[in-house]
Design a protein that fits this description.
36% of the residues lie in helices and 31% in strands. It is of the alpha/beta class. InterPro entries: CheY-like_superfamily, LytR-like, LytTR_DNA-bd_dom, Sig_transdc_resp-reg_receiver.
Length: 249
């Protein structure tokens, strides 16, 4: 599973510093993306960036933590609330079965709260896998639109139309995507090929599979295909005629 991208929001600077120290020293699964003492600045950041987890102080000047979340609805990150008061806010958080920390911060309570977030995150990934499975069952013989790929950091979910090419890399597979990223899937090339047999994909070489809808130019006499990302994909001699036929069909 990839690192949890987190933001710290507390108007008390020393509380942010304590939390940051605990995380950096004891919770390597968390990467701190930003730290804020001003909720307005935090709001702007969260409106323009994707994160997994927000440590959010309840009482802050300007607007409180609940008001900040209301301004962001709908949001897709987990929240661990932080408060110095055993107040109605804590009772409401407990009633809602959400995670919170009480000041002064305690390392063991922090670890328990983060473990809860990790469990929820793993559940969401598993839920996505089940959703893909149910979609496959519901569609029967119809073509599917998404691919679930195990990686070193968890699972990646791709729209199949976004895949430009796939390349065998030992027992793994590299997939190039339209947003420019490359994904290392921890599954053999053959499994990827089997998953894409009914899609517009063409095997050009022992190590390459291309999306024919992402072909820019078939270069005659050069033994390769130019893709929309400017990658030159080789065509093996014995596959040449079949590849050209598939590209022109």
């Amino acid at each position: 599973m990839s690192k949890i991208q987190a933001v710290l929001i507390d108007d008390e600077k020393h509380c942010n510093e304590t939390l940051q120290f605990f995380i950096e020293k004891h919770l390597p699964e968390i990467e701190i993306k930003a730290v804020f003492i001003d909720p307005s600045e935090a709001l702007l950041f969260l409106q323009n960036n994707t994160v997994d987890l927000v440590f959010l102080d309840v009482q802050m000047p300007g607007f409180n933590g609940f008001e900040l979340l209301a301004k962001l609805k709908p949001f897709h990150f987990e929240v661990i609330f932080i408060t110095a008061f055993d107040s109605y806010a804590i009772r409401a958080i407990k009633f809602s079965a959400l995670d919170y920390l009480q000041k002064p911060l305690d390392l063991e309570e922090l670890k328990i709260a983060v473990e809860s977030v990790v469990s929820k995150r793993a559940f969401k990934e598993k839920q996505e896998l089940f959703n893909n499975l149910l979609e496959a069952i519901a569609n029967g013989n119809q073509e599917l639109n998404r691919l679930s790929l195990p990686s070193r950091n968890g699972y990646v979910f791709l729209n199949i139309v976004d895949i430009i090419w796939c390349k065998a890399e030992g027992n793994y597979t590299i997939l190039k995507v339209r947003d420019g990223s490359q994904i290392l899937a921890t599954v053999p090339f053959k499994k990827i090929e089997d998953s894409l047999t009914l899609k517009p994909f063409v095997r050009t070489h022992n190590s390459y599979l291309i999306n024919r809808e992402q072909v820019r130019h078939l270069v005659k006499g050069k033994g390769y295909i130019l893709m929309t990302d400017d990658e030159q994909i080789p065509i093996s001699r014995y596959r040449k005629d079949t590849v050209i036929e598939q590209l022109l069909s």
